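step 3/5: co-fold with fe (ii) ion
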Amino acid sequence: MGEFALNSIYEKIIDDILEQKYSISDNFFSSEETTQLRNHVINQNTNEGFHQAAIGNSQNEKILKSIRGDKIKWIDEANKNEVEEIFFTKVNDFISYLNRTCYMGIEESEFHYAAYTKGTFYQRHVDAFKNDDRRTLSMVFYLNDEDWKDEFGGQLALHLLNDDGSEKELNILPFAGRMAIFDSKTIPHEVKTVKKTRYSITGWLKTRPTNGF
Ligand SMILES: O=C(O)CCC(=O)C(=O)O
Ligand SMILES: [Fe+2]
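step 4/5: write C-alpha cells
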C-alpha cells in the first residue's frame, strides 16, 4: 500500500457513493462517541440557541414551516468544544481520505445541529442551491435512541431511480450512530413527519464553486 492506511469503514462508504450515490453507515463513530454527541445535543437544553430553519441560502431566505419544521443551530468549528472536537476530528479525517483517494476536491464543510419536534417534517427537496453549487455531499448523523421505531416516523426517505427510470423510495430510520451520506445535487429526499423529538447533525462537504459564485 502507499503512504496511508486503508480505512475499511471509509472504503465501504466510498464504494457505495461511487456505485449508487449514497451510503448508510452504522459505525462511522464509535458507540462511545455517539453517546457523547447525543448527550451534547440534548444537553443544549432542547432548542436553546436553536432557531427555526430557513429555506434556501442567504440570497433567498424565508421561513416556511409548511416546507420544513426543524430547529437548527450552526456549529462554529473555530470555537468548537470538546465534544465537537471529536466530531470534527473524525469528519476532517474522512474529508482528507476522500480527497486523497477520490480527488473529491472538498475545500469546506458546514454542519448544524437539528431538532425535529413532534409533528414536524422536511418536504422533498435537493440540497444544492440553484445559485451556489458548492454542496457536493450531504451527511446526516442521527443521535436518537438505538431502538427508534418505525411508528416514531422521522424516516429519511431518499427518492432513487430504478434502471427503467421509475422512482423508488428508500426509507432510513434515524438510529443512534447511523450516518447517511448522499449526493447533494442529484438525490431528492425528505424527512417524514416525526412523532417524537428527533436529533441529528446535518452538514455538507463543499467544493470550489463552478458557476461563478
Ligand atoms: O435529517 C435528515 O434526515 C435530512 C435533513 C435534510 O434533508 C436537510 O437538512 O437538508
Ligand atoms: Fe436535505
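step 5/5: annotate
Residues 8-206 form a domain with the Jelly Rolls fold (CATH 2.60.120.620).
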